[in-house]
Amino acid sequence: MDKADESRPEERASRDERQSLRWAHDIATETDVQRGLAMTTTGDHVWDAARHLVDFCESEADEIGLLRDGATVLELGAGCGFLGMMIARNVPSLKTCLLTEMETGGALEHLQHNVDLNHDLLEGRATTSACDWVTFGQPGSDPDSTDPVAAEHWDIIVASDLVYDEAGVEMLPRVLGRLICGGTVCYYCHTLHRYDMMDADFLQALKAEDLVVTEVRRRSEATPPPSPPPFECLFNEHRLVIWRIARAEAAAS
Hints:
Shape: globular
């Protein structure tokens, strides 16, 4: 029996009621251009992968533990903040939802602007913090105990389309290797076959961190045909996939 089944009947009824509610899709984001600024990062746009992961989280909220009272959610590489803010907006039972970005290029400032823009809808559930993957994922590094990313145990980590350069391939698996512990599960939405070599290296780096990767989808979503092996076709069709990334013991549950 999983933890959700151990709750009292009235808690299960309340959770079932929350699960049946359709999510509000009223989160607003502004681009740097709309703010009269130069566009300096990739976080100036709501990418399809973020929307796809929002749809998954809405459909499977109870199944993945989002509706557990006091759950903690961390978003890595939050960009404009759409994904994390949608979760914070629609899951009032969360303890916290921390959206992270690098400070370089004004990315964190832009993220904070969008969180402030939705202040009344978020009701304090969404906060922001810097997270430098190079520093945080560096072997032997010891983040300050006051660092909000390191200070909290995260039940769920979410992220979307972060593997498009060396930092994503090498550093993101190291960061996940540090953060995924004690039952933490990451749901990462990725555009498969955009960069086949990076896809293969990223999955190998996750394996090196003793992390297990499983493809998941909404229960209402049809199983797609299997993708061709990497490097077999010159132009494979891009496909959005959601990978559940966890330690072996959590992956088996």
